[in-house]
Amino acid sequence: MPGPRPSAALGLCVAAGVAAGCAASTQSIRIECVPQQVTLYVDGRLLEGPADEIVLRTDQPHKIYVKGPGFEPKLVVLEPEVDADGRHSLGPGELCIEVVPIGMGRELEVEVERDVEVETPPR
Fold this sequence. Notes:
The protein is mainly beta. It contains one helix and nine strands; from the N terminus they run H-E-E-E-E-E-E-E-E-E. It has one helix spanning 16-19; strands at 26-34, 39-42, 45-47, 53-57, 62-67, 74-78, 81-82, 88-89, 94-98.
């Protein structure tokens, strides 16, 4: 599996060596999308190529938007958490985003008309 994806446009620290230069602490988040042929946006910016792992700042929330042709779009918000030592984190470090085909994520409303008059057969 390749390492974190470089993305200067996102302003993300992308490797341990680069992370040291970031003002805030960062966390590596492994992303798995089902299906894999979807498009990912992090904080409104397109991630180009396959997104196996990204590194995000832990002191702010991040919005991950997933969409793909024929699938319901999905928005996931990662909120920072503060542990007992006062350090920020974005959760366990793995994120599985499952998208469903259009129409499958909604409950279907079906109207059924029934004939209220029931004919009783002769005896």
